[in-house]
Amino acid sequence: MRPCLTSHFDMSPARLMRQTHCPGPIDVKSPLLLRCGTLCFVLLLSACSWPGFLRHPEIASAPVDCALSVAPSASFIYGPTQGGRLSANRVANTAMTSIILKQSVSAAVRDAVKASLVVAQVGVNNPHKVLSGRIEQFSVDDLRAPANWSLKIRYVLTDSSTHKTLYQSTQTVKQRAAKFTSNEGALSDTVNLSVKALVSDPAFISAMRAGSPACTGSSHGVVRRTG
Q1: Paired sense of beta strands 129-141 and 76-78, if any
Q2: Could you say which DSSP state residue 143 is in?
Q3: Antiparallel, parallel or unpaired: β 99-100 and 224-226
């Protein structure tokens, strides 16, 4: 602290008692200030992680009778493998290099179907209605860019207790993808288009609702977001 300059020189005790002080320059490199700044920053970060500080929408499951379950990969038959035309993890393509997946095409498509249903907010927790599929055709025209992925699946929704077929349809979709994109990513995008076509079919929605009073008035057994 330094004394302020006055207009005249007065060293009397009374004047000294009344004399004000001006703040000196702040040392931004002061260890005390640095420690205080660090503490404030840590407290701010901690506040962001407190429950309720940021409220994310909660996911509420639809009634179990207003949904379906996805059959295991063995129930998603990959037709092109029959007769030894293709190996279980290969997708037919036109380029010189082969498209080989890390897992079987049946497993990859089945997992992508389930993931796409969840994204579409369709419940997948009902063991009484089971969705399976037959992959009738899956190919990629990748001689030129972009590559064209083509997928044809016959979907079947079955009552697991009576084994009665509640719904069946064939969905054919085409998807363009960069020639050197991830095969798994392109497959997922193509299956997603197929599932979108499936859940857009009113007959499919009716089959999920059939015999399920809990579905009345609901949005085709979806997983609803509440916030």
Answers
A1: parallel
A2: S
A3: unpaired
Backbone phi, then psi, for 135, in 5-degree steps? -85, 95
Residues 6+ apart with CB under 8 A from 90: 98, 99, 100, 101, 105
- The answer to whether the CB of 73 falls within 8 A of the CB of 61 is no
Q: Is the alpha carbon torsion for 189, 205, 212, 131 positive or negative? A: negative
Give the span between the Cα atoms of 87 and 94, in whole angstroms: 16
Q: Of 175, 173, 177, give the one whose Cα is nearest residue 194.
A: 173
HSE at residue 216, side-chain half, CA atoms within 13 A, is 4
Q: What is the pLDDT of residues 53-95, one digit of tens each?
A: 333 333 334 455 568 999 999 999 999 998 788 899 999 999 8
Best CA proximity match to 181, nearest among 151, 142, 152: 142
Per-residue tokens: 223: 């997983």
Cis amide linkage into residue 51, ω under 30° from 0: no
Q: How far apart are CA 56 and CA 45, in angstroms?
A: 18
Closest CA to 75 of 133, 125, 124, 126: 133
Asked whether the predicted pLDDT for residue 173 surpasses 80, the reply is yes
Token look-up 């579905």 returns 215
Whether 98 and 37 have beta carbons less than 8 Å apart is answered as no
Average pLDDT over residues 109-138: 95
CA distance 159 to 65: 12
The residues near 176 (Cβ < 8 Å, ≥ 6 apart) are 146, 147, 148, 149
